[in-house]
Amino acid sequence: MRVCRLLLSFVLFLCLYEGCAVNPISGEEDFMLYPEQHDIAIGRKYAPEAEKQLKGKIPNEELQNYIDTVGQRIARISHRPDWEYHFMAVQDESINALALPGGYVFITKGLLVKLTTEAQLASILAHEVSHAVARDSAAAISREIGIGILFAAAVIQDAPQSALEAANITRQILGLQYSRDDEQAADLAGLDYMVRAGYNPQGMIETMHVLQDEMKVKPIEFFSTHPNPQNRIGYLKQKIQAKYLNLVDVKIGKEEYKRHVIENLKDNQVHEQRK
Question: Which of 65, 89, 237, 269 is the most buried (most CB within 10 A)?
Fold first, then answer.
């Protein structure tokens, strides 16, 4: 009975709220079933389960602080600098990065070991921040998972939910796929974000080549939710040529990345082998 009353309240809420919201990146009006505060509620509710499904947080404080510092540097110059962003490196060996609604961003160990510079890391985090800011995941949830997720996460946050239910919903969120238009917008906005944060835009081109090379060896998880980089490199190069060709004093951060990420990952591996 209580669930029925909550569902009725949820439907009434949708009827009252239903309308358009301006996408801060495109400037266009997008149809949204619920306000952006509920993105944050969804992210907060399912982030712990996402961390669990991604094999847990990498147990290295220096590495985590470094990832968060780079991410927060980008978040501060995004279209939603007032959000509380969370950046985490996880143990999963797959080559992947993803964002939950509301600014919860994960990057896997499998991807971290393939990168070589802070600018490349910034390009990945900026792309994921762009998805969160544009609320692409909210649209994908409505399209791929359905209204139930909104009912479960955004409205009845205090309602009991089994571990199996939470795991299933989180698995669906982690597998959300964006449209090609969404991906292109996130690429271009991410490029702007990383440059505004002080990074060399070539870092994004380099990252696309890294992913492309890995794809030649075997299919990688990143492309299960992101388009192949081959076509994306072209429009990124065009934008750099038109807007960012003569930048000076932009950061690459090869030594910083090696010290804070690669060396710490090696130390963690040695520590695990000694157990």
Answer: 89
Mean predicted confidence (pLDDT) in 211-233: 71
Question: Which of 2-6, 152-156, 252-256, 263-267 bottoms out in mean pLDDT, i.e. has the lowest?
Answer: 2-6
The full set of domain ranges for the chain reads 2-274
Q: What is the pLDDT of residue 4?
A: 45
CB of 171 closer than 8 Å to CB of 149: no
Contact at 8 Å (CB) between 176 and 204?
A: no
CB atoms near residue 272 (< 10 Å): 9
**Cβ atoms of residues 145 and 173 within 8 Å:** yes
The CA angle 224-42-45, to the nearest 5 degrees, is 105
Q: Are strands 104-108 and 19-22 parallel, antiparallel or unpaired?
A: unpaired
Percent over 70 (pLDDT), the chain: 76
73 has a pLDDT exceeding 80: yes
Q: How high is the mean pLDDT of the chain?
A: 84
Structure tokens at 155: 């409205």
Which one, of 174, 24, 202, lies nearest residue 90 by Cα? 174
CA distance 48 to 163: 11
